[in-house]
Specification:
Blueprint (H helix, E strand, L loop, with lengths): L11 H12 L11 H11 L4 H10 L14 E8 L2 E11 L18 E9 L2 E6 L2 H13 L2
Helix pairs in contact: 2-3
């Protein structure tokens, strides 16, 4: 049986921040008051982020966007075991623009979301894995533990 407290954690926010700092330039622009809200509304109407909307306007209709919209999380399984509520949730990690995610094995287009699975215990993230089967095996181990 795997020791639950000794799992190696993967901090996807830290990973994404470090990657973005290394691979991207940030551009700060100043526009007249109200323009940001106007552009954000136009971007939302097209299903784009403000960044993707601006890139589309600068580079043209067929421009590659840094990211596509992130799919919603999906509850895969919920179960109460010995008074604790466990949930397996399919979430997504954003694949950096121009790269493919190297941990899931999923083939995704540049700048797209790749699936990952998380187990929550009583509403708190308990463990993160890259396949649904790994999370289900963890739930089975918990259920079968004496």
């Amino acid at each position: 049986m795997r020791a639950m407290g000794n799992e190696k954690s993967y901090d996807k926010v830290k990973y994404n921040n470090e990657y973005n700092k290394e691979k991207y330039d940030k551009i700060l622009i100043a526009v007249r008051k109200g323009k940001k809200a106007e552009w954000t509304a136009k971007a939302k109407a097209e299903g784009l982020s403000l960044t993707a909307y601006i890139i589309k306007k600068v580079e043209g209709e067929n421009a590659m966007y840094p990211y596509e919209p992130m799919p919603a999380s999906e509850l895969i399984r919920a179960e109460t075991i010995r008074g604790n509520e466990y949930k397996v949730v399919k979430t997504y990690v954003m694949v950096p623009y121009g790269e493919h995610h190297d941990k899931t094995g999923a083939i995704v287009k540049d700048g797209g979301p790749a699936p990952m699975y998380e187990v929550f215990k009583n509403g708190q993230r308990f463990i993160t894995r890259y396949t649904e089967a790994e999370c289900m095996a963890i739930i089975e181990e918990i259920r079968n533990a004496k």
